[in-house]
Design brief:
heterodimer, A: about 475 residues, alpha/beta, eleven-stranded mixed beta sheet, 14 helices, B: mainly alpha, 2 helices, extended
Chain lengths: ~475, ~60
């Protein structure tokens, strides 16, 4: 790794979290100057990227000051000391209403306490600088938002970031922060990671606490980090692990650090490419990205996830019905205040007969059992992350396999059958020109370490990389 | 579902749930519901044993 830690100064416009933390720990940069640089960059670039919906400058400066004071007293700093980060605005930030991308939630009381993951990152020394744009109530794959405007892709600001964690994608890919948190119900971390050229980790369902984040679909909601390096994913993921009584889904598992796994030998891993369903609707860029990753890993074998199309259908049904139940009262009383497209999907979701939702949940258990059987024979499965690179903002359709297909519902066709059964995935970026695109590295439940080790190996080999945008605002 | 019967279902179910559906929203709500029902049928037609449990399992407590 080209570690800026050995340099006199740190390039704060593109430094990784681990570079910043080691510079701050060694006294080569103060937390205050790191945070000031991040805040300046947000001020300069956010009018273009529309990534942030709130900036907590005063809080961030106070935290940075406390870190610098702690260092002056020779107190031990955490592994993320001085690292600026931001969170999708469905995470509670004390003092702010939790918007979840909506207009309606502006009327909520300010959060009394930070989300668990914000607390854990800050306990490791990271510094929250703000809250990020997202698709309304996370029911989105585009990163567009009718209330706040679309977040914009730093590689081409006329293009989508992907959603629903669109602001998270724009903030990290634009170099505003090295790490951001997103949520992923059907692909909302992996889709923006793919379209913005980032590494994204959707952990195993139940691994990371969702406490004090605004829900979408409790059966399927995950939370996790986006970053520009695998090391930063692992660092932030490790800092966030651990049981949390405030999230009933959060597993009673010990912290299983992934950082030590990054250098692990992966030659013996059995790696296969997802076939069948995952071959259909793939644009040439995503096909090329997958082939390059498979070739670099020597993965020539193909494996079929049985009934993956039906799994996607079942995820769709559960999503719309459970999402509608979250918003039932708001649909009754504030229907005009929703994004009309989200409202119409949720109204429809409220009308889905319960027997069909229950069938989808029964199918989910069947599908889980079949896919888990596959992991007796393989360790890691590769699949496209999105059908192709970022569509234009506002683009309604794209042509997949010769058929004009709606963009919004289909950006997640390859992510949905995976999150449906909660498997851990690292999305890795292929730096294609002009627009990057991602590949999913999928592992068995609780084996985030394995997916991260494979991602790291690809990164070390120069196969995948988070590309720096050529220019944003002429910078 | 035939045209009228789906519209009737939407009106009746929305009435039971006290959900206001503006006539202007009806076509989009209907289109979304048609898509959902089509996908739900794909799931429901898959044969599962009567004993199949749903994915979420309730735990009484430790």
């Amino acid at each position: 790794m080209a570690d800026v830690a050995s340099d006199a100064r740190v390039d704060l416009t593109w430094a990784s979290a681990s570079e910043i933390a080691s510079a701050v720990a060694a006294g080569r940069a103060s937390a205050a100057e790191v945070i000031d640089a991040a805040l300046s960059r947000v001020a300069a670039l956010n009018p273009t990227l529309n990534a942030f919906t709130a900036v907590v400058a005063e809080r961030a400066r106070a935290k940075a000051c406390a870190l610098d004071e702690a260092r002056a007293k020779d107190q031990r700093l955490g592994p993320l000391a001085g690292v600026p980060f931001a969170v999708k605005n469905l995470f509670d930030v004390a003092g702010l209403p939790t918007l979840a991308g909506s207009k309606i939630n502006h009327d909520r009381a300010p959060a009394a306490r930070d989300a668990t993951l914000v607390e854990r990152l800050e306990a490791a020394g990271a510094v929250l600088v703000g809250a990020l744009n997202m698709g309304e109530y996370a029911y989105d794959f585009t990163g567009e938002n009718v209330h706040d405007g679309p977040s914009r892709n730093p590689h081409d600001t006329t293009r989508m970031t992907g959603g629903s964690s669109g602001g998270s994608g724009a903030a990290v890919a634009g170099g505003l922060v090295p790490v951001a948190l997103g949520s992923d119900t059907n692909g909302s971390i992996r889709v923006p990671a793919s379209l913005c050229g980032l590494f994204g980790l959707k952990p195993t369902y139940g691994r990371l606490s969702r406490a004090r984040s605004f829900p979408f679909v409790g059966s399927l909601d995950h939370v996790g980090p986006l970053a520009r390096t695998t090391r930063d994913l692992a660092l932030s993921y490790d800092a966030m692990q651990g049981h949390d009584l405030d999230d009933p889904v959060c597993a009673r598992r010990p912290v299983e650090p992934a950082l030590p796994a990054l250098g692990r030998e992966i030659k013996r891993l059995r790696i296969a490419v997802a076939g069948g369903y995952f071959h259909r609707g793939v644009l040439p860029e995503s096909r090329a990205a997958l082939e390059r990753v498979a070739q670099a890993l020597g993965a020539s074998r193909e494996i079929e996830l049985p009934e993956a199309g039906r799994a996607r259908a079942a995820a769709f049904v559960i999503t719309t019905a459970e999402g509608a139940s979250v918003h039932l009262e708001r649909l009754r009383t504030r229907a005009n205040d929703f994004d009309p497209a989200v409202r119409d999907r949720l109204l429809s979701g409220a009308l889905v007969p319960a027997v069909l939702v229950q069938r989808a949940q029964k199918f989910r258990r069947w599908y889980r059992a079949r896919v888990l059987e596959l992991f007796g024979d393989v360790d890691v499965i590769l699949a496209p992350a999105t059908p192709g690179p970022a569509p234009l903002i506002g683009q309604q359709t794209f042509v997949l396999d010769g058929v004009e297909t709606p963009v919004r519902a289909n950006l997640g066709i390859f992510t949905q059958p995976i999150s449906f059964i909660g498997l851990p995935v690292v999305a890795v970026p292929m730096p294609l020109d002009p627009m990057p695109v991602g590949v999913q590295i999928i592992a068995a439940p609780w084996r985030e370490d394995m997916a991260l080790a494979v991602a790291h190996s690809l990164e070390q080999a120069g196969v995948v990389r988070s590309p720096k945008p050529r220019t944003v605002n002429g910078e | 579902m035939a045209d009228d019967s789906l519209d009737d279902y939407i009106a009746a179910a929305a009435g039971v749930l006290e959900l206001p559906i503006d006539p202007a929203w009806q076509p989009a709500v209907r289109a979304n519901l048609e898509l959902t029902l089509r996908l739900a049928a794909v799931v429901a037609e898959f044969p599962l044993p009567d004993e199949a449990d749903a994915a979420p399992v309730f735990e009484t407590g430790s």
